[in-house]
Amino acid sequence: MASRTVGPVTGAAAGAAALTTIIFWVLTGFGIDAPGEVQGAVTTLLVIIAGWLVPAKDEPGKHVAE
Q: I need a labelling partner for 24 at 20 to 30 A (CA). Which of 9, 38, 43, 62 fits?
């Protein structure tokens, strides 16, 4: 079985989603509440930005979209 790893773009997107959760948790501690829709929208934007900023892993023999 081939070894599977998480690519840098996927890792960045997952990290952005986790970061959003932590940010809104901290804000709730300060008494600032945001609706779930706003939290979801911020998460989506951070995931898109993280996926755009992190370059794809370029491995020989594997297709990398250009």
A: 9
Q: How far apart are CA 12 and CA 55, in angstroms?
A: 10
Residue 2 has pLDDT above 70, yes or no: no
Of 26, 24, 28, 29, whose CA–CA distance to 40 is shortest?
24
| Domain residue spans of the chain | 9-53
Whole-number mean pLDDT of the chain? Answer: 84
Residue whose token pair is 């997952």? 14
